[in-house]
Request: fold
Amino acid sequence: MSTIIAIGSDHGGFDLKEVIKAHLIERGLKFIDVGTTSTKSVDYPEFAHKLCQKIQTGECSRGILCCGTGIGMSMAANKHKGIRAACCSDTYSAKLTRQHNDANVLCMGARVVGAGLALDMVDLFLDTDFEGGRHVNRVNAVDAFDEEKE
Ligand code: RB5
Reply:
């Protein structure tokens, strides 16, 4: 599996995305930035879609999306097959969504969380393994809803 992280934002999440990129560089992690490239107003679904495609093709293993609240990005991302996106604003959720939900996309709101908290969540999201066990059937049941869309 790829170890490259996909990262994206809209204008509301742009500054936070840049902070996270600097953190990933510091950690020596590879990433692909799907945009946006400035604080000029854009529509978040476009960037959620670009990021989800990176995961669906296997080019990237995990994704990080930032918008104003994290909510629009998570809604858009969760419409994509195989994507389990979690909108988080606390470290407990960022850790548990890996352990229990096997989340592959972390969404955060730049108008909700500060940069320090966001980076702690990024580290937990990237460094925490899925627990498996009793959670496997539940995650599979969630993923099975993808088939009903077709
Ligand atoms: C943009 O103003 C804002 O709506 C967007 O960043 C996000 O919060 C949507 O959920």
Summary: The longest strand covers residues 62-67. The pocket of D-ribose is lined by residues 10, 12, 44, 67-69, 71-72 (CB under 6 Å).
